[in-house]
Amino acid sequence: MSYSIEPDLDPCVDVNEIMAMFGDWTLRLDVQLIYSTIYAVIFVIGIIGNGLLIGTMVIRKRMTVANVFLINLAVSDLLLCITALPITPVLAFVKRWLFGGMLCKLVPLCQGISVLISSYCLCLIAVDRYRSIVTPLKIPWTVRQAQFMVAACWMGSITVSSPLFITQRLQQIVLGNTTLCGEFCGEYDWPPDPRIKLFYGSGLLVVQYLIPVSIMAFCYWKILQKVRQDWIVDTGSLLTEAQQAQTLIRKRRVYWLLILMVAVFMGSWMPLSVVNILRDMGVGFLDVQMYFKLLNVHALAMTTICTNPLLYFWMSKRHRKALKDDMFWLTNVRKQHQMGLLERFAPNPSVGILYKRSLERHLLQPPKYSYRRPTLADPTCMNRERSVQEMQANCFLLVPLMPLYVPGRSSSNAFLRP
């Protein structure tokens, strides 16, 4: 019996075999481990940071203009975290599309929408702060107006990103007589005229990067000038030296924080924006170590998923305190439902200590006209000691509740405060 092996009618070559001949760095195991770790860390921090931001806002149930912008910023970062971070390193290492035709269209669309929403939410936050600090006499935005602006941003982002959905598709690539294995996802449905794609890429650079940077830089520069004018401490000021030093520390903190907000956005997105426009222009130097260069600029841009909630939410003491209160509520919700009427009001600790000490002195001091020294066998002394023990065990019952109370965590209004 003889067996014949028919030759493969459509032989293909793995693209990594071709890239290995050019010394592609993304094929090295150490590079893959390092960048996989970087992307995993960004993914975990982004999910936790933005998830806690949204959870804190939902639990507090208090919607303000700033909260509307922050929630949408967190939602866009989560969308970018889910669509970009798991897929990009796989593409850089495998170099072909493994996720199907539908995701080939949806993933670039979602990435474009999330990037635009993130950029313009940062702009709206900057403009809102500008109106509140530099022009405080203007009528502030309402929550409904903020929601309308956010909805307009979503509609505009979908419209601007729609060409990515239209032009993306899967395709096999043939280089001369060589067919590359697998399918590749790319913008293959643009019109033949290359100027159309270049025009779209240039417009996207202006809309996604240049306009937001200009708006943020202008607003925060005006805020810096206003803060510097308001916090100038004269030599004849009534503030003490400690208060003047504290004011100087606060001023420096605001300076660096505002500068950092603009610098982080510019430094994170500028390399990727420049690389994308240079690819549309067909600049040749990107062909050398192309996948490695794209992986670096993309990882740098994705760090904003971590820095946005840190700079705009977790740097605020008020928000950190709210999260701490919410976490305490979540871990003690069952206990709080069982609390009685007296436990709904927690006594002030300092008042309780003073009241306890004064009551203890009153119970232990001998009678004013006593002519004998009390002993342990004396019933009056035993009664006094028993009273002290009962007082120490139930001291909160002896403190007047209504005039000297601090609302406890179980009060329903406590969760509504920011």
From TrEMBL:
Q: How does it sit in the membrane?
A: Multi-pass membrane protein
What GO MF annotations does this protein's record show? neuropeptide binding; neuropeptide Y receptor activity
Report TM segments: 33-56, 68-94, 106-127, 148-166, 198-221, 254-278, 290-314
Q: Name one GO cellular component term.
A: plasma membrane
Localized where?
Membrane
The UniProt entry, under InterPro entries, shows: GPCR_Rhodpsn (IPR000276), GPCR_Rhodpsn_7TM (IPR017452), NPY_rcpt (IPR000611)
Q: Which UniProt keywords apply?
A: G-protein coupled receptor, Membrane, Receptor, Transducer, Transmembrane, Transmembrane helix
**For the G-protein coupled receptors family 1 profile domain, which residue ranges apply?**
49-312
SMART domains reported in the protein's UniProt record: 7TM_GPCR_Srsx (SM01381)
State the family it belongs to.
Belongs to the G-protein coupled receptor 1 family.
- Full protein name: G-protein coupled receptors family 1 profile domain-containing protein
